[in-house]
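Catalogue entry: protein
Contents: sequence, fold tokens
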Amino acid sequence: MKTQIDDLVRMRDIETLVALMEENDDWMMQLDAAEGLARLGDRRGLEFLLAAADSDSREVRQVVKEILEGPSVARLRAEMEADEKREREERVKTAKARLQKGRKVFRYKMVYLPSGEFMDEMPEGGEYDLPALDDEGLLGWEVIHVLPYRGRALAEEADHIRGAYFLMRREIAAEDAAELDSP
């Protein structure tokens, strides 16, 4: 299989490599195709490998680690990270200019809370206290969306809400523009 990938790389057949990476049933073939794309400088291959690095399979993670440490993939990864850093610096510069003109700029983050923090019995008065979200609110963060997380604690249990992800937003004031410099 590896020789087929090498042939596709020599022919610069990006379309076939992408198809193999996205649609093949053999994970090793997918990883080989992703590596081939990365060797050709196609970021989709590197992005696929970085996502595969979080696989549940120890074997997949090990293969991905070896691929990512290869010189051509490591070079592309360094270039991609440098590009992302430059793009972020440009967005921060643009955001600071927006603040100087009196326009709005926001920061976003996700906060996860297990269901035990908000799914107890309904208290008297019908309101729950959510200290973790209260603390975020005191720092200027506002909940703008909630994504429930469903699952089972044990195999024999029924599927139920295990927690929730809270999408938070905070407006940055002009005097706080320096906060934009940190990720």
Notes: The chain has a mean pLDDT of 88. The CA atoms of residues 142 and 169 lie 5 Å apart. The radius of gyration is 23 Å.
